[in-house]
Specification:
474 residues; Alpha-Beta Plaits; Chitinase A, domain 3; four-stranded antiparallel sheet; 11 strands; disordered C terminus; peptidyl-prolyl cis-trans isomerase activity; Trigger_fac_ribosome-bd_sf; chaperone; protein folding chaperone
Length: 474
Amino acid sequence: MKSAVETLNPTRVRLTVEVPFEELKPSLDAAYRKINQQVTVPGFRKGKIPARIIDQRFGRGAVLEEAVNDALPKFYSEAVSEGELNPLGQPEVDITELKDNELLTFTAEVDVRPEITIPDYTGIEVTVEAAEVTDEDVTEAVDQLRERFASTSVVERAAAEGDVVKLDLEAKVDGEVLEDGVAEGVDYTIGSGQLLDGIDEAVTGLEADGTATFTSTLKGGSAAGREAEVTVKVISVSARELPELDDEFAQLASEFDTLEELRADSRRRLADQKKYQQATEAQEKVLDALLELVEVPMPEKLLQDEVETRKHNLEHHQLGQLGMDLDAYLKLQDKTTEEFEAELKEQAEKGIRTQFVLDQIAKTENLTVSQEELTEHLVRRAQSSGMSPDQFAQAVVEGGQVPMLVGEVSRGKALATVVEAVKVTDTNGEPVHLDDEDEDAAGTTEAAAEVVEETSTEGAAAEAGDKAEKADKD
């Protein structure tokens, strides 16, 4: 076999491959065996039909077509290896010549990973928020815990902010009550902002049996994104009573004996959260600065496929779970189709550039992924997808997505390597150090992998989710 590589542009090549006919013989023999098992010829036992009879009855062309289809992937792979190429996606193959008993010639055009030069990035400097925990932060955290232990009691007065009201709701669009637009006995805390825009103003001041009508844009259901006329009736009004902030509350709400111990624990937890947020901010800003330094040629076919994948995942996974279609989503986001598609393309481009750049750094730095690192990453991905680790792992393996998860961890390690090499300071002018040896700082490789996931190419989670959903139905 002979092959030649022609560079069409920095991200696409054309392979021209010539295969002597004798190298087709294994596939040709396999084609005769396959046809033998599929057809019946009077006078011959199944599987024992001579090749010349198959040629006479079914045509030599059919056998050659079967043989070529069987052999092409092997010859293409050999040509890719011979040319030391890194193909992206499936090739466009064209058989240019097929001479029986002489020669097979074909071409294959395919996108390839571009050559990338990583410049010196040690001069990058970014500033992030200081990871400070104030007394007000601690008080707010304790108050949120206190809210969870609040009790309610029905009162005979008008509803006010903070009260829990039991409501019946009815939504109309264009004067028609929606099939999924009626709800009864809904508990809602006034001021929480967790139901519909405008409902707080509508129910405030109403007593039991009071009604009000207001307009609001629906956030889900069959008419998501559309404006509806909503009628609300207050069934009852309940006042919320918060427990006293004392040692007794600490014992009720936690494993601690005193309120001071509870507050100290809240401060520690908040400090961990702030450090994690700080690490994420640092990694995002360093990644953006790094991408500005590197010129990355963009494979157009890969970009087109990535845009389509992201659009598909949005429509069939994220919006589908909300009972919303793309038109409703765009209306809710106040975006035109053109704005949405431009934004999607920008995100896809950044994802591809991120993958190429961090893969090159991982290669240059000889970064590898251990089984322990992959397992930790898989467990976290499973948690974020709402699946068990075993279920997620099975779906990933069946979908052939293990290399994608390995890539996410590898790129996370590459980004962490860059972050450690650049200058990160907080808003107080203090240096910020993010490393895996600091157990309290969550700004580690796994945190970096999360940042990479936000920008990187799509696929693993969505496909794993598809398989898990199907498994649940079965």
